[in-house]
Amino acid sequence: MTTTAVPRRAAITAASTVKPPVSARQAATTPARPGLRGRVRRLADAAVTPLELDDVLDVFHPLRAGAPLRGRIVEVCAETEDSATIVIKPGKDWSGHVPGQYVRVGAEVDGVRLWRTYSLTHGPRRDGCLSITVKAIPGGLVSQHLVHSARPGQMLQLAPAQGDFVLPDPLPAKLLLVTAGSGITPVIGMLRNLYSRATTPATDIVLVHVNASESSAIFRDELREHAEAGHITLVERYDDRDGLLDVAHPVTGLASLVPDLDDRLAYACGPAGLLDALESFHAERGLALTTERFRPVVLGDAGAGGTVTFTSGPSAEADGETPLLDAGESAGVLMPSGCRIGVCFGCVLPLKQGAVRDLRNGAITQAVPGETAPEGIPIQTCINAAAGDCSLDDAG
Question: How far apart are CA 109 and CA 104, in angstroms?
């Protein structure tokens, strides 16, 4: 995910984790316990050998304080035919979030833990739960699993909330929110938070919400309820009815939909095409814009591609527009990853030989045996593609 005050965002991860040996894990996670408490702990660990006490507690009390951060699915609520809201009871160490932020979620799919990033779609809840709303992407392992296969009681791995796509405090007098498709997810969390308070804000909010069709619009009825209550001015646009939104069009563009947009602090979330157009439009008018992207910006000419070889054995043929992370996963390599947009550096692997191209700016990184360091050059696999044959050290 990426947030900027004039470009960025995205989401998504795929990673598998290997549990360390009991002895190593115990040494890393179990501090010395002097006296009676320490003796009790040693006896308990001995009683469950070859496991340790934490392994047993993980089964019976996985959401306890001090455990790896997890969440239990409480409810799966269908939103549209291909989207659902997942309500999750987080572990005791969940530290909360600010509406507009996102959370990394790890799900076990076919025995492999895959990580993806989703916006949190709520403000503070009385039940202490959190919620994400997921749209099933064709071929998307995690999104398809969460929307169509997840059930209450299942456990998910969690990471602390992150992201800077949040509203300022205090709020401005006028606010413009532009969203498209699932880009509404962080914004619905903002609105739910604002209008669940005892005192509602006096801010004049205009929401321009774009979708392919009315039937595919997530939170359509809830947004209309906000509009009917006078909370927001809602402008709905549907591609199949209104055509694609040309942001800069002098007659039907954003200025015609929001005549006083120059007076409004603007936030936008959605696909790259719309955000690119909004950024250019606002820059030309000298206006500030904060954006949140769901995919990294990829240049049209991303290179020639080539054979990607991994030290663990597999190799893959990759074109010049496919991130090395995706190429490795497609070849069955268990790749480390994080945000999948070049922000968190969770996907870094050493480039041992060959050349790769940064999909964001076209920069070439080349590793030549005998000239570059023996350990290779660290690169981010989520935003680099093959620029010829190359090899990566995934042995870790």
Answer: 15
Q: Enumerate the H helices of the chain as residue ranges.
A: 22-29, 35-47, 53-60, 141-148, 184-194, 220-228, 239-242, 254-257, 272-284, 324-330
Same domain, 10 and 129: yes
DSSP state of 36: H
Structure letter (DSSP) for residue 131: E
What's the structural domain count of the chain? 4
Contact assessment for residue 11 and residue 117, using Cβ atoms and an 8 Å cutoff: yes
CA gap 215, 210 in Å, rounded: 12
Rounded mean pLDDT for each run of 10 residues along the chain, 396 residues in total:
45 34 40 58 55 50 85 96 96 94 88 82 88 89 93 94 93 97 95 89 96 94 96 96 94 96 96 92 97 63 79 89 91 88 88 89 79 82 92 87
Boundaries of domain holding 318: 306-392
- Angle in degrees, CA 139, 141, 144, rounded to 5: 80
pTM for the predicted model, two decimal places: 0.68
Tell me, what DSSP letter sits at residue 374? T
255 inside domain: yes
User: Which of 378, 321, 383 is closest to 392 using CA atoms?
Assistant: 378
Q: What is the CATH number of the domain that holds 385?
A: 3.10.20.30
> Looking at the structure, do residues 243 and 129 belong to the same domain, yes or no?
no
Same domain, 123 and 178: no
Domain boundary among 270, 293, 316: 293
